[in-house]
Automatic annotation (TrEMBL):
It catalyses: Hydrolysis of (1->4)-beta-linkages between N-acetylmuramic acid and N-acetyl-D-glucosamine residues in a peptidoglycan and between N-acetyl-D-glucosamine residues in chitodextrins. SUPFAM superfamilies: Lysozyme-like (SSF53955). Coiled coil: none annotated. It comes from Pantoea alhagi. Keywords: Antimicrobial, Bacteriolytic enzyme, Glycosidase, Hydrolase. One of its GO terms (biological process) is peptidoglycan catabolic process. It is an enzyme of class 3 (hydrolase). This is Lysozyme. The keyword Hydrolase applies. Belongs to the glycosyl hydrolase 24 family. InterPro entries: Bacteriophage_GH24 (IPR051018), Glyco_hydro_24 (IPR002196), Lysozyme-like_dom_sf (IPR023346), Lysozyme_dom_sf (IPR023347).
Amino acid sequence: MTEAIQKEYTKKECDVLLDKTLYKYTIVLNNLPVMPVSTTVGFLDFAYNAGINAANNSTVKKRLAEGNYVQASKAVLQWRYVSQKKPDYSKGRWEHRNGKYYYDCSQYHQGKPNKLCYGLYTRRLMESELLAGTMTNKEEIQSYIHRFGK
């Protein structure tokens, strides 16, 4: 059994790593108009989570390109599904489409948020709120993300 290599990072080192990661994902902002800061943060988070290719080809990006933040914030909520070839029905309802089984991560199972992927859905809710572009400053955005993450 190998032990995980652990290193403690300083805040400055973390900031450098974050900057490098964010820079990689800024490619998704190409061909988009200038947007509110919260919208940009929401779209970068979506791209980081869904992938650059998925974000670039998404309805979310199409709506942002039109300047339609309300529709972009709704479109990101369509990204709340996971798929498998063989479903685990003990986790809840699965839909069968195009040879795969899809699970809606927003569903409750036995009266509680599902254990399979409810976290993905809560992330989409956060991204949706950010994409709407209603938060106006860095502190408000940071406070929201911090509250949402708990």
